[in-house]
Amino acid sequence: MFRHRTGEVECPEIALTASHSPDNEIAIVEWDDSGGPQPHFQGLDGVARAVVGYSGGRKPNPTYRSIEDHTEAVLVEYDPRTISYEDILAEWAGLDYPYSSGKTQYRSAVWYTSEYQREAAERTVEAIRTNARGREVYASVEPATKFYRAEEYHQNFLRKQGRNM
User: Fold this and answer.
1) Reported pTM
2) Tens-of-pLDDT digits for all 165 residues of the chain?
3) How many helices (H) and strands (E) does the chain have?
4) 136 burial class (0-12, 13-18, 19+ CB within 10 angstroms)?
5) Could you tell me what percentage of the chain is helix, strand and coil, using 3-state DSSP and rounding each to the nearest 5?
6) Category of 106 on φ-ψ map: left (φ > 0), alpha (ψ -120 to 50) or beta
């Protein structure tokens, strides 16, 4: 365990591979709703796990207090025989608010791990733009590089607060 200069424990990198089954796949989408993604995604049939964390930046081992160029995100491990990548994207798109050009920490983004995912994510973002009714859409589609698991107090946050979605 390594402590950051702020005193927080630095967040470990998580491999972008399935851990529950070799047939599972990984999706990474932005999420800026404090603690909400885990119960939401974990409640979907075919989702093996959902982990909140940070993605999209270059600084290693970010923390919530030193997030810098990373974005709050959720890594979703899913069984593509039960739920499709497009279904995961549809869930994200239905809950995301891509109309703000705010801080990097809360920007709207999808990170892909394959060409198939890139194409599906671009189609999803294009559909959002088509239905934006003249509003500017600030959603990006980027290659997945690294994902860092957020601090333990962020994991299943709502459950720890005695709330459910």
Assistant:
1) 0.85
2) 444 445 556 688 888 888 889 999 999 999 865 556 788 898 999 999 999 888 998 988 888 888 888 888 999 999 999 999 999 999 999 887 887 777 887 888 999 999 999 999 999 999 999 999 999 998 999 999 899 988 765 565 555 556 555
3) 4, 7
4) exposed
5) 25, 25, 50
6) alpha
